[in-house]
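Worked example
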Amino acid sequence: MIFMISGDVGAGKTAFFRKVVGGLQSRGLQVAGFASERAFKEGLLAGYDIVEIGSGTRTTWLRRGGAGEGIGPFTIFAAGLAAAAGIIGKTEPSGLLAVDELGPLELAGRGFWTFLKPLLDDPGRSFLFVIRTACLPGFKELFAGGDIRIFHLTDRPSPDEAASEVALHVG
C-alpha cells in the first residue's frame, strides 16, 4: 500500500511526516527511510539534508548554488543521493519505507526514483511518501492501479490518526 502526505511548500509536510513516523514507532512498527530536513547557514536556508530515520545520520543532499546537476536553485550532492540509495536498499521487504520527499526530480525518473521504482512491485512492501501538492497528479498517475491513501494537509488530518490508519495496513 502507498500512503502519501501532500501539501504545499512550507505547509509542514516534513513535521507531519516526523509525527506520523514517531506514532508508528510508538506502536512498535519498524519504519525505515529518511526525511529531507532543511539546512541553514547563518540563519538562511542553505539547502536540504537526508536524515535517516532511527539513526539520525545527516548527509548533505541539496545546496544553493554550485556546479553540477541541480533542481531549482539547488545543486544535488552525490553523497546525499548515495545515502538515500543505501537507506532504501537496506529496507526489509515486509516493512514500511518512508521517504520525504518525492518531487519533480523523481517524476523525471531521476533522484530517489532510480532506487524506489524496483521496490514498488514488491507485494509485501508498504510506503509512506511526502509529495508536494503540485506533483501529486503525476505521482497518482505513476501509482495508478495501486492501493493509495492520501493525507492532504489542507484537510488538517491528525498525525496520530494517520499513524493509526497506516499501522492497520502495515505489519
